[in-house]
Amino acid sequence: MNTSTRVTRECTFDQLEPSLITAIQNHETKYGLGSLEPEILMCCETNSSTEKSGLFGKSTDTILSAVFLTPQWLVWASGRDGAGSAQLKHIDVHDYADSAMFAISPEFGLNITGRYTNHNQTGQVFIRLDSGPVGQKFRALLYETLEKIKPK
User: Fold this and answer.
1) CA distances from 35 to 7, 19, 29, 32, 60 (A)
2) How far apart are CA 25 and CA 3, in angstroms?
3) CATH classification at residue 87
4) How does the average pLDDT of the chain come out, rounded?
5) How much is the CA Rg of the chain, to the nearest whole Å?
6) Which domain holds residue 56?
7) Which strands make up the sheet holding 122-128, listed edge to edge?
């Protein structure tokens, strides 16, 4: 059986792992976003570690990721997938814990569905966040900011 651990910490953009900073800055440059960092409402870094048991023993898979929110943008990066972004007006956000898949594969984070800066078509991305106070604070701020952009 696989065992997962996920820890999210709140930080400033400058406190992110340097490789994540580089990925985000390269993404901003490539897509002409300018520097979004002065507008950050909240920034988080998440360390996800999964211990897998298999036929040849145990192995650990670790993913470091980051996400930040501005009044108009959601920006994310992972050591595995690079960086991405989306204008809040073009996305829908759903807590993964509320999905049918949670019963099969318990993960904590957000499913972001919509049109991203680097895609012409819609898609879905998973943002890793823990279920603790920092992860909950980010979720709440994201939902609050989305409500201002797209009132129901």
Assistant:
1) 27, 17, 8, 9, 35
2) 33
3) 2.30.29.30
4) 85
5) 16
6) 3-149
7) 91-95, 109-115, 122-128
The string over 52-87, giving b where at least 16 C-beta atoms fall within 10 Å of a residue's C-beta and e elsewhere, is eeeeeeeeeeeebbbbbbbeebbbbbbeeeebbbbb
Q: Which residue has the tokens 């950050």?
A: 40
Tell me how many domains the chain contains: 1
The residues facing 87 across adjacent strands are 73
Cα–Cα distance between 152 and 108 in angstroms, integer? 25
Helix (H) or strand (E) holding 138: helix 133-149
Structure tokens at 139: 């979720």
CA 87 from chain center: how many Å? 14
The rounded distance, in Å, linking the Cα atoms of 122 and 90 is: 9
**pLDDT digits over 40-98, tens only?**
999 999 998 877 666 666 767 788 999 999 999 999 999 877 899 999 999 988 875 55
Cα–Cα distances (Å) from 4 to 15, 63, 97, 124, in that order, read 24, 11, 15, 22
